[in-house]
């Protein structure tokens, strides 16, 4: 299984709008996506009010590629999200179970 960690920093002043998008659109979308075994969304904290994240566990690399395309390092960006986010990071790991 593949663990994908997706983190965003919102544009200043866009925290509330992104939070609505995150809860109303992004989380339901990811939970309904074929090939995702687990979705762990992380919302902003007082010490980092502009930072949000997803930890997603994908069944395999083929399932991840079916969602994002061949370049798995590129984000899957909703047009609404694009105007709210200042920066994104994506990292992938092989899931270690134990």
TrEMBL record:
InterPro entries: ABM_dom (IPR007138), Dimeric_a/b-barrel (IPR011008). Pfam families: ABM. Residues 1-69 form the ABM domain. It comes from the Bacteria. This is ABM domain-containing protein. It comes from Sedimentitalea xiamensis.
């Amino acid at each position: 299984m593949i663990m994908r960690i997706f983190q965003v920093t919102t544009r200043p002043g866009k925290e509330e709008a992104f939070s609505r998008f995150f809860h109303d659109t992004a989380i339901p979308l990811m939970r309904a996506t074929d090939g995702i075994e687990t979705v762990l969304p992380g919302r902003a904290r007082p010490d980092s009010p502009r930072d949000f994240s997803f930890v997603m566990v994908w069944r395999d690399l083929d399932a991840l590629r079916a969602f994002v395309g061949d370049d798995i390092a590129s984000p899957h960006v909703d047009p609404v999200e694009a105007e709210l986010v200042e920066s994104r990071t994506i990292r992938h790991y092989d899931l270690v179970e134990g």
